Amino acid sequence: MLGKESKNFDALSLFSPPPILRGYMYGAQEAYGARDSNRLLAIRLETNTSCNLHCRYCYAQSGEDSVKIADFNVLKRIISEAKELGIRSVVVIGGGEPTLYPNFRELIAYIDSLGIVPMLFSNTILMTEELADFLYEHNASVMGKLDSLKPEVQDYLAGREGAFKDIKTGLGNLQKAGFSKPAEPGKLRLGISFVSNKLNLEEIAEIWHFCRQNNIFPNMEILTPTGRANDELEDKLLTADEIKEYKLRLLEIDRNYYGYNWLPYTPITASGCLQHLYSLYINIEGNVRPCAPTKLDEHPALRVNGEYPYNVNRMSLKEIYDSKLFTYVRNIDKVLEGRCGNCEYIKECIGCRGYAYSVGINNGAGPLEALRMECQQCFKE
Questions:
Q1: Which residues contact 150 (CB under 8 A, 6 or more apart)?
Q2: Side-chain half-sphere of 104: how many Cα atoms within 13 Å?
Q3: Rounded Cα gap, residues 282 and 326, in angstroms
Q4: Burial (CB count <10 Å: 0-12, 13-18, 19+), residue 1
Q5: Would the pTM of this model clear 0.70, i.e. be above it?
Q6: Distance in angstroms (rounded) separating the CA atoms of residues 31 and 28
Q7: CB atoms closer than 10 angstroms to residue 49
Q8: This protein's superkingdom (predicted)?
Q9: How is 6-71 classified by DSSP, letter by letter?
């Protein structure tokens, strides 16, 4: 069955994309249109590195012992500068757990007051009914977490006993508040992020069905060799064949049960990821990256006089956006190497640049070389 299905991928006319999570990802037409008109569509903000979990795959290595907190006035300035560049959404990704941020509610209210969609990543541990109602009333979209339907697996991956129970309670409160009702046709307000690895591989189809049946965006990520995962889950990375098999299985599920059809090669399953074209990621130190795992700020080759210059406390967001480095990033589709550079689907997919970067850097490549390397997750022949 899977072999037969795989022969149909080249028929672009078949594509009927499933709904997206509002404010999180933008489609190819919007992404390239924004890039070509020098417009940002979104920024991703770290607010705090403190976290009530200790996830074994955390790219930021957050936890209870981490106490870095972003200045609220600085965040407001960044958002204001980003608004001038045209953003439609602010992805509050935390760095840790953003609901622990002291000015969390003020931040969400401020974003909403500017007519921008607040899009929140949360492990939902602190998601009370009252907080869920607050977020709903302030036009937010929420990406929760559910790596496993088995308590013991979820607790292990989250690094805390009882995490599964608390996560499920928080997700239930979001559903009660109305987040399972789409914001508009094709755009959902609730998502669930799950990081695929050898521990949860057999559950992926069940989690996928749960999301589809409850109007929840399934944010399937692939375990990336960066941050804490390098030390704690190195042996849980999926092989290329495993990635291929589960993506094809999910495509078959969507076709047969839900009437959706999508390109299976994209890094985030059934949605793609073109954020390098239209988004900027600002970490807790104010350093700007293309995305979370693309840690340009940590590479010595990009430092000037010992400092990474692309920092919101040293340059305006517009100066960073217009810089030679980030112009290169936004036009990465024009210099991709290997299969990515020759791919007929380059307008739909540029591979996972974060994964390519992480693997490239780990293997000794320079930052610009790593950015343009072919995506090793892709199984297109």
A1: 164, 203
A2: 23
A3: 13
A4: exposed
A5: yes
A6: 5
A7: 24
A8: Archaea
A9: HTTTT-GGG-BPPPEETTT---HHHHHHHHHTT---EEEEEEE-B-S---TT-TT--BTT---B--
User: Domains, the chain, ranges and CATH?
Assistant: 18-256 (3.20.20.70)
Cβ count near 381 (within 10 Å): 5
How many CB atoms are closer than 10 A to CB 120?
26
CB 93 within 8 A of CB 45: yes
**What is the chain's pLDDT, residue by residue, as a tens digit (381 residues)?**
334 444 444 444 455 789 999 999 999 999 999 999 999 999 999 999 999 998 888 866 666 555 899 999 999 999 999 999 999 999 999 778 999 999 999 999 999 999 999 999 999 999 999 999 999 999 999 999 999 999 999 999 999 999 999 999 999 999 999 999 999 988 999 999 998 888 898 999 999 999 999 999 999 887 766 666 667 677 787 788 888 999 999 999 999 999 999 999 988 889 889 999 999 999 999 999 999 889 999 999 999 999 999 999 999 999 999 999 999 999 999 999 999 999 999 999 999 999 899 999 999 999 999 999 998 878 888
Task: Give the residue carrying structure tokens 């000015």.
Answer: 103
- State how far the alpha carbon of 17 is from the alpha carbons of 28, 238, 264, in Å: 11, 25, 11
Q: What is the rounded CA–CA span in Å between residue 211 and residue 189?
A: 12
Kindly state the tokens that stand for 63.
């936890």
Let me know: does 250 contact 244? Beta carbons within 8 Å: no
Q: Which of 321, 263, 255 is nearest to 288 (CA)?
A: 321
